[in-house]
Amino acid sequence: MMSTAQAPLPAAPCLRIPEGEAPYLEAQRCGACDALYLTPRMACSRCGKRDDLHPQRLAERGTLYSFAIVHRSFPGVETPFISAIVDLEGGGTLKGNLRGIEATPEAVRLGMAVKVVIDDALGRRDKDGNAYLAYFFEPAEEPSA
Amino acid sequence: MSDDVYIIGVDMLKFGRFPDRTVPQLGAQAALLALDDAGLEIKAMEALYCGNLYQANAMVGQRILQEIGQTGIPVVNCANACATGATAFREAWMAVKAGACDLALAVGVEQMGKGLLGGGGAGTGIPKEGLFGGGTMPTVFAEAGMEHSHRYGTTFEQFAKVSVKNHHHSTMNPKAAYQMETPLEMVMNAEMISYPNTKLMCSVNVDGAAAAVLASGKKVRELGLGKRAVKVRASALTSDPWQERDLVMPDVNSCTRLAAEKAFSLAGLGPEDLDLVELHDCFATAELLHYENLGLCGDGEAGRLIDDGETALGGRIPVNVSGGLLSKGHPLGATGIANIYEVSTHLRGEAGRRQVKDARIGLTHVIGLGSACAIHVLEKSDF
């Protein structure tokens, strides 16, 4: 009964998947104080301004702000993986897996340039069999000085 | 001006595993110990504030009174992540400070499951752990530590030294869950949980309970309990103010800084006045951050502080001489009162081998993710 392939669903609220176009990341920016949010809210949690959040497309390049190398996780979660916190160019911070690099403290460099890659959510499916898209980070070429 | 508030009885159970006991039984045991320490009976108490996280809907405070005496007093049950016990203590402090009662009991109690805390994450229908990084507590605090590394070059070895120190301290604390030395190589070579936190750099998951009896100055004089009374010089509680990255990094820093600022201002004291500190070393990485958050050193100096032994017993400002959460253990709801017990014991000059010499003023700090930070400044009896 697996009928027609459904389009994958976003695994994160900031992930947009427009029909026939490349998926992208979108945040909400406060019109009053410029604070950026990855999820909608009733008012700006920085300044309290109501009904003044506006969509802003996030950059797909950034730098590694912090990380952890996860060796022990919950049952069924494949390890090791790099849990990365990335500051995006133009604002916004995301947390996700950093892949395409050895999961050792020697290989990972704080401040390194990374790019955002949107890809299948590690084959994870919900109870209805839906596929999901997620974002990941990969090492990027350093911007020329 | 309102009367000062004092601790006149305080104690804790030796932390460990108590599978044959219930949460109310553990809380009741600690309550009786604290009452005995004050030389009072439950009948004298005018209110009970009970902190417990995992059974927040189970009326634990009332069930404690079922064990030790149902006197009909007001009972408030509270949950505030890892600041739960300190929040219960603070509520008792507020009741006495406000003049609503002269004697109040605060209890913190927890029975822990096993394994990793944290993770999960609500939202759409697939598990997120390992998909968008990691959400376990060791991972979150590893990231908080690496943020410090990014800014100041703090090393894995410096973080590991925190664990060496606190485990060493715990060898002098009969109420710590563990009392064993863990040399640096042992800490660094232990199972890596989330780099840079190895297993020995994660707090111990154990059961426990602690309790305190708080009294107005008037009552302390009336009962003649001034000699061992400990003055609550300040109580501060904060939630996390907005921070740029707080959607992806639970913020333990600004929350603590804000609480420290409030506490020092209320106490009319500064970090230089402290003789000892019990802070929230839920992971070894966290302790170094809080040296700076609490003003024990300047920003970027925490690595040097641990390298120079300034926070070890005998150093300039001993931190976590109880063994800390890393070795004494971390039963979430009990932790915030257990560290008040520790500091009070030093101020009373009753800490035995681990006594901080001539301790007069101490600070306790806990932080629960989400976030809540509680700080208390305690002072030796002025009677």
Description:
Chain A is mostly beta strands and 145 residues long. Chain A has one domain (9-16, 23-139). Helices cover 0% and strands 44% of the residues of chain A. Chain A is built from no helices and ten strands. Chain A has strands at 9-10, 15-16, 24-30, 36-37, 53-57, 61-70, 81-88, 93-98, 113-125, 131-139. In chain A, the strands form two sheets. Chain A has a six-stranded mixed beta sheet with strand order 1-10-9-6-7-8, with no helix packed on it. In chain A, strands 2, 3, 4 and 5 form a four-stranded antiparallel beta sheet that branches. In chain A, strand 3 (24-30) and strand 4 form a beta hairpin. Chain A starts with 8 loop residues before the first strand and ends in a 6-residue tail after the last strand. In chain A, 30% of the residues are buried. Chain B has 383 residues and is of the alpha/beta class. Chain B has one domain (5-113, 205-378): 3-Layer(aba) Sandwich (Peroxisomal Thiolase, Chain A, domain 1). In chain B, 35% of the residues lie in helices and 18% in strands. In chain B, strands 3-2-4-7-1-8-11-10-9 form a nine-stranded mixed beta sheet, sandwiched between helices. In chain B, strand 10 (361-368) and strand 11 form a beta hairpin. In chain B, helix 1 (23-38) crosses helix 2. The longest helix of chain B has 16 residues, at 23-38. Chain B is globular, with a radius of gyration of 20 Å. The two termini of chain B are 18 Å apart. Chain A binds chain B through residues 9-13, 35, 37-39, 45-46, 65-74, 76-79, 81-85, 87, 93-97, 105, 110-111, 121-122, 124-128, 130, 132, 134-135, and chain B through 116, 119, 123-134, 136, 138-140, 142-144, 146-147, 149-150, 156, 191-197, 242, 244-245, 247-249. Strand 6 (61-70) of chain A pairs antiparallel with strand 5 (192-195) of chain B, so a sheet runs across the interface.
